[in-house]
Amino acid sequence: MYFIANWKMFGGLSTLNSLKKVIKFLKIFKKSKKIKIIYCPPSTLICPMSKKVINSKIQVGAQNCHESFTYGASTGSINPTMLKNVGAKYVILGHSENRDSGETDKLINAKIRAATQAGLKVIFCIGETLGQKRKKITKKILSKQINFGLQKIKKRKNIVIAYEPVWSIGTGLIPKADDLFNTINFIKKKVINIKVLYGGSVNPKNINELKLIKNIDGFLIGGASQDPKKFIDIIKKTYN
Ligand code: 13P
Known about the structure:
By secondary structure, the chain is of the alpha/beta class. It is built from ten helices and eight strands. Bound molecules: 1,3-dihydroxyacetonephosphate.
């Protein structure tokens, strides 16, 4: 199981102290060997966080990257090679908050290729909006995001998919258990041998419901991951 923390635009150097609790917990947690813990802080914290988590179970990831893996004239951008250089092992790509600000499937595909070429593992996000769900075109949307996003990428062993319905992000809403099971199943049939995580308002309360959905390989956690107690609770409850 994957437990991935997406801190989004949150955190300064002092916030890194909150990792101590999580590291301590992971040392004594009996199921630690079975789980992967990845923290994706803002780019400013990748390097200091990587230093803090040395010799712990926690791995570090980035939240986005440029579509070129080499240096270039691109003011304000960071390429995947640079992220790897400061300790990132993963990168989140295709997040709806970035699709919302104009990232196309084509651009996301280029980013996935650059990231894997640079040796990063990719957390590839897909998901439908509320309007698309109401129109009952969720599968069509996910198919399009997958087909274009993973185009010409043959080696997919370094990619996991995070299914994040846009309407569930930051709203407290989660999909009905049956719907979620079916959607994850649909994704797994479409992309064979891929791990599929769920993201969207995962918290210590609804984890009891979400953990019963058998085909989920882990969770991508936003808001709740900023609080070490909530993050630990989510992990604990998944195995209770
Ligand atoms: P929340 O858990 O805050 O809803 O965010 C989910 C998310 O976007 C993770 O990538």
